[in-house]
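Operator note (shift B, R.M.): manual run for Late embryogenesis abundant protein LEA-2 subgroup domain-containing protein requested after the automated queue skipped it. Running by hand, logging everything below so the morning shift can see what happened. Input copied straight from the record, untouched. If output looks odd, do not overwrite the archive copy; leave it for review.
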Amino acid sequence: MPESNLNGAYYGPSIPPPSKSYHRHGRGSSCNPCSCLFGCLCNCIFQIIFTILIVLGVIALVLWLVLRPNKVKFYVTDATLTQFDLSTANNTLYYDLALNMTIRNPNKRIGIYYDSIEARGMYKGQRFASHNLEPFYQGHKTTSSLHPVLKGQSLVLLGDREKSNYNNEKNSGVYDIEMKLYMRIRLKIGWIKTHKIKPKIECDIKVPLESNGRSSANFEETRCHLDW
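Run finished. Output pasted below as returned.
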């Protein structure tokens, strides 16, 4: 091509710009420091708690194997009822009830401190009397006796159904009375004494009324229910 036809510089065909390459980081290739720290902390806490639970479980198992604890047994062995009169005029109950109770501790290595004992007499769901008994200590594999006496008068509000039941019991000469023992006790294991525990003992007894020194039926020994 003649040079006269060239009016300016000749650049030739345009060269495309170089393509940019992008590197996408994978989601699992890096870790947020805060997230990693939180995850490690949670994992450590979980392992510590799990270890503590295992240790406590092993200790509890060893103590159970060594002590072999058994439930304390409560019985009402005898009951004497010489008065149980309900006045419909003023809803007052006049009562005179004496009980003989036994507590059997069958454990070889556990003693019991009875710090407080309150005996409550209940009739048709209402308390009519209470008696505080003397505190005492009960040793291993021993039987102790309690002698609560409930005597006096108390206001008792009964509905028509309860009054009808009372009249039926009066005719039969045998009354359904509930005795409850509210306690605060401590267990003694070797030289260790536990914190105070508050068990509740419930005794559903059928007590015959004595008249002139005689009762219409014999009292049957009753085992009580222990609620921890």
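Quick read of the result: The chain has two domains: 41-69, 73-227. The chain has a mean pLDDT of 84.
Leaving this for review. - R.M.
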